[in-house]
Design brief:
The chain is an alpha/beta fold. The chain has helices at residues 2-5, 9-16, 21-26, 57-69, 88-100, 173-179, 270-275, 287-295, 324-327, 369-381, 397-408, 428-434, 451-454; strands at 43-47, 77-86, 105-112, 119-120, 134-139, 142-144, 158-162, 164-166, 186-191, 203-205, 211-216, 226-228, 234-240, 248-249, 255-261, 281-284, 308-312, 335-341, 359-365, 387-392, 417-422.
């Protein structure tokens, strides 16, 4: 302890900055000198009721104390995760204080008030903010109003907005935020409905953006959407297909994950589909998305770079006529992943005479006769297969043995190997039960403890 006391306050504060806030705060009892040192660390991280008594008055008092004691001491990172209510006005005051201190990373995940009222974001968060590099606003309801001028986020690289509404009606909020952020590389927007009051502008235009996630609950407004993002490498997009995509510039796109719904006769995804030409990894995360590609198949380009394709199925709505559409026009497709149960229907389909798929992964397999029939069809049509990985579920060892034997007996090329793993983490029985089957508990098998990593 004497050696530590011999260190300067600056070094001690640096050491404390590597500890969780709860632990660094406990050092205040060591001596009078240590009473306030934890408040002079550049990083403040508070998580739920695991920290300083929870998100009630104790937390409010604690944060107030830290900000008072540290006076104008710069805070580089402020992170708070609170599932209990916190006063909106108090929270806004904290934000203004932190912004005045030049906070670099701001991560807010809170719920305000006993009735979950909206948190009003201070205007200073978006004006002349020269230091902010990362801004995350999650979980709670946030409201904001951008000024007509002076919006400036020159250092911002990551922006995460969840359940936020801007009350501006005279200009495109998203466009203003993007133009004010010349270094922005990652943008995430998650919302229920619209992120702007009135006519929501959905123009994503940025030459620096590399990762974009837009997850919005479908609303029947059909506003057009623009993707003018020439350097975008990753796109995750969930929502309702609008009337039009007037501009789509995705020339650098490597990976796309799509979960889209559409209305025939109104929605038009043509330009978006054509803009995916260069994608290397593509995931169709819903049956509706596969259906969209089927109905607008004339717009699908040749996917010359597509290496991995993931398709989500279900027992209720998936029609296997959707399945061959992308496979037939992907001359370099290596890995095909089917996320969901297999089942047989009247549609068998052709995948092209030279389908190049070498690896097939099935994530939910129960060994029913219809599934086995579909498996036989896949292995027959995918003539270049070298490896088939099946994640299966069985109720006992006898069932596991039967499933494994059936799969190994499926006709296939001499070079094709089949790997079967049994896992407790599968949605197969949930799907089967929905169709009237009997749901047995899954077996726990040691050789596949983490199925998610197997995808």
């Amino acid at each position: 302890m004497d050696r530590i006391n011999g260190l300067s306050d600056e070094i001690i504060c640096h050491i404390l900055s590597f500890l969780p806030t709860k632990e660094s705060a406990l050092t205040c009892v060591l001596s009078k000198r240590w009473r306030n040192l934890f408040a002079l660390t550049p990083n403040l991280c508070l998580v739920d009721d695991l920290e300083v008594g929870g998100c009630g008055p104790n937390l409010v008092d604690f944060v107030d104390r830290v900000l008072v004691v540290s006076s104008n001491f710069p805070i580089r990172e402020f992170s708070i995760k609170c599932r209990k209510s916190i006063d909106s006005g108090q929270f806004t005051c904290w934000m203004i204080d932190l912004l005045n201190r030049g906070v670099v990373n701001l991560d807010i995940d809170v719920i305000a008030g006993p009735h979950k009222e909206a948190i009003l974001l201070p205007i200073e968060m978006f004006t002349c903010n020269n230091t902010m590099v990362e801004l995350k606003l999650a979980t709670g309801r946030f409201e904001a109003m951008l000024p007509d001028e002076d919006v400036s986020l020159p250092s911002l690289k990551t922006l995460f907005l969840e359940r936020i509404c801007f009350y501006n009606t005279d200009f495109c909020v998203l466009g203003k935020l993007l133009s004010a952020s010349p270094l922005l590389e990652e943008l995430t927007i998650r919302c229920v409905g619209s992120w702007q009051y009135g006519s929501c502008c959905r123009n994503v235009s940025s030459s620096t953006l590399k990762k974009l996630t837009i997850v919005c609950t479908p609303q029947l407004d059909f506003w057009d959407m623009v993707f003018d993002t020439p350097n975008l490498a990753y796109l995750e997009y969930t929502g309702l297909v609008p009337r039009e995509y007037p501009t789509v510039n995705l020339e650098s796109l490597v990976e796309a994950k799509l979960d889209l719904s559409f209305c025939l006769g109104i929605s038009n995804p043509t330009n978006l589909i054509k803009g995916l030409t260069n994608v290397e990894v593509l995931e169709l995360s819903s049956v509706k998305t596969s259906e969209m590609f089927y109905y607008f198949r004339e717009a699908i380009p040749v996917f010359g770079n597509l290496f991995r394709l993931s398709i989500t199925t279900d027992l209720e709505f998936y029609n296997w006529k959707y399945f061959p559409i992308l496979i037939m026009i992907s001359p370099n497709l290596h890995t095909l992943v089917i996320k969901g149960p297999l089942h047989a229907d009247e549609c068998e389909g052709e995948y092209g005479l030279s389908c190049p798929v070498k690896v097939l992964k099935i994530t939910e397999y129960g060994g029913k006769s219809g599934e086995l029939k579909r498996m036989k069809h896949l292995l027959e049509k995918l003539a270049c297969l070298e490896l088939v990985k099946v994640r299966a579920c069985a109720i006992n060892d006898k069932e596991k043995s039967r499933i494994t034997k059936d799969l190994l007996m499926v006709p296939r090329s001499f070079n094709c190997n089949i790997q079967v793993k049994f896992s407790e983490k599968t949605n197969y029985y949930k799907h089967y039960k929905q169709k009237g089957g009997y749901c047995y508990p899954a077996m726990i098998i040691q050789d596949d403890p983490s199925p998610d990593s197997w995808h």
